[in-house]
Known about the structure:
The protein is mostly helical and about 35 residues long. Helices cover about 80% and strands about 0% of the residues.
Amino acid sequence: MQVVSVLFFLHVFMLLNHNMCNISYCFGDVMNY
């Protein structure tokens, strides 16, 4: 379960980091679809 926690943490961190908008949007699209 640690892997899932790390992925979730990275997802939240990337969403909060507006400097990485492109990466967060791409990752967000993958998570949504």
